[in-house]
Write a structure and sequence with these properties.
The chain is an alpha/beta fold. Helix 5 links the parallel strand 2 and strand 3. The longest helix is centred in the middle third of the chain and has 20 residues. It binds 6-deoxy-beta-L-fructofuranose (LRH) and manganese (II) ion (2 copies).
Length: 424
């Protein structure tokens, strides 16, 4: 896969520079009363899960332009995920999507063992029809007017739990595309009642140590109304279902300019924040690489998470959810994992005591300056040092390119011809 010697050789040429940069940053931080080693320890402990579906080239509803060496199935996807983790030491787990990743649990476990990866939340899919499926989700799934269609969707979610159970996952994320395209097409209230009723049946099938995440999204594929459209509805769902139900925040699923960090703070306050799908967006649910458009917003989300990290019971599933259309997906996921980790470390060096003082004194200017001081700090030496100490790459993209991994797998994996639209 990725040879240990290659990483060592790549790191050897960068070690001296890293040491110098790390020492310089350490001295600067020390003047601010910050211990660089404590931050490096936090960077080492941080992990974000990779979405199995992110390893293949994505697409829009207009076209998909596959690259070389596209993964043939879940086993290839897990190999690619292992490369990302090997080079970054930041992505120890993978989130699976069923039925896209359906395979014998024993084989999944075997592959996980071989690659050293674990499994994060399972994702169900009742937003597409599968070839062998008796009933269509064209007009909805868990909220469909037809009881048998709802039952089929419930059954699918229960199957996801069953597979997840066999491979050590502890959560199920439910996102549905249900909604409507025309005013009047559906009863907004009865459709939600049907959804809740179906979700209660899924909830009843959760093992004791599992959680269920409800993921909201403002629109798409339904273009007039969506059943789980925002965090208010998501919170209602989690509250009505019970303690094991929490909300998942996908950064791309909000109206433009929505204050996502506030949503984060509110959901933590309610004990209902379960996890994230990290990505970035400019217009809608663009699924762009994390931190490419609004790195300050990503930082502000982490600022809330770090401020509230000692909240009792807080247990967040950090996951990426992106679509890579024009890059090598492995490279995008490597960069994104590092950007998410960067936001976390930047947020970790906010001078919280000073910030609280400025807040109490209503010194808005200095409070904002305190955040900016953290956001502007180049923490790359901390991230790189954490990687180097873990045997990962100081410059993961450079090491990946030097490895020739993509060309190697392209020899085994058949070329995929360009296709029509599709999300993965
Ligand atoms: C919906 C979504 C959801 C799906 C994934 C493929 O837009 O964010 O998480 O499971 O994309
Ligand atoms: Mn998502
Ligand atoms: Mn999405």
């Amino acid at each position: 896969m990725i040879d240990k010697n290659l990483i060592e050789a790549e790191n050897a040429s960068r070690e001296a520079d890293l040491t110098a940069d790390y020492e310089a940053l350490g001295a600067r931080l020390a003047r601010r009363g910050v211990d660089i080693e404590a931050l490096t320890t936090r960077a080492t402990a941080f992990g974000v899960a990779v979405p199995s579906w992110g390893t293949g080239t994505g697409g829009t509803r207009f076209a998909r332009f596959p690259g070389l060496g596209e993964p043939r199935g879940i086993m290839d996807k897990l190999d690619d995920c292992a490369v990302i983790h090997r080079l970054t030491d930041a992505t120890p787990k993978v989130s699976l999507h069923i039925p896209w990743d359906k395979a014998e649990p024993a084989l999944l476990l075997e592959k996980a063992e071989e690659t050293g990866l674990g499994f994060d939340a399972m994702n169900s899919n009742t937003f597409q029809d599968q070839p062998d499926q008796p009933r269509s989700y064209k007009f909805g799934s868990l909220s469909h007017t037809d009881a048998a269609t709802r039952a089929q969707a419930v059954e699918h979610n229960l199957e996801c739990i069953q597979i997840g159970r066999a491979i050590g996952s502890k959560a199920l994320t439910v996102w549905i595309g249900d909604g409507s395209n025309f005013p009047g097409q559906t009863s907004l209230s009865r459709q939600f009642d049907r959804y809740l009723d179906a979700m209660k049946q899924v909830y009843a099938g959760l093992p004791d140590d599992w959680r269920i995440f409800s993921e909201h999204k403002i629109y798409e594929p339904a273009f007039y109304s969506t059943v789980v459209q925002d965090w208010g509805t998501s919170l209602m769902i989690a509250q009505e279902l019970g303690d094991k139900a929490q909300c998942l925040v996908d950064l791309g699923h909000h109206a433009p300019n929505v204050n996502i960090e506030m949503i984060v703070a509110r959901l933590i306050r309610a004990g209902k924040l379960g996890g994230f799908h990290f990505n970035d967006s400019k217009y809608g649910d663009d699924d762009l690489d994390s931190g490419t458009i609004e790195p300050f917003r990503l930082f502000l989300v982490f600022n809330e998470l770090v401020e509230l990290e000692d909240t009792p019971g807080l247990n967040l599933a950090h996951m990426i959810d992106q679509s890579h259309n024009v890059t090598d997906p492995i490279e995008s996921l490597i960069v994104s994992a590092c950007e998410i980790q960067r936001a976390y470390i930047q947020a970790s060096l906010v001078d919280r005591e000073a910030l609280d003082g400025f807040r109490d004194a209503n010194d808005a200017l200095m409070a904002a300056a305190t955040l900016r001081a953290a956001f502007r700090t180049d923490v790359e030496p901390i991230l790189a040092m954490a990687r180097a100490r873990a045997g990962a790459a100081i410059d993961p993209v450079a090491a990946y390119r030097a490895s020739g991994y993509r060309a190697k797998v392209a020899e085994e994996r058949p070329r995929v011809t360009a296709g029509g639209g599709g999300i993965v």
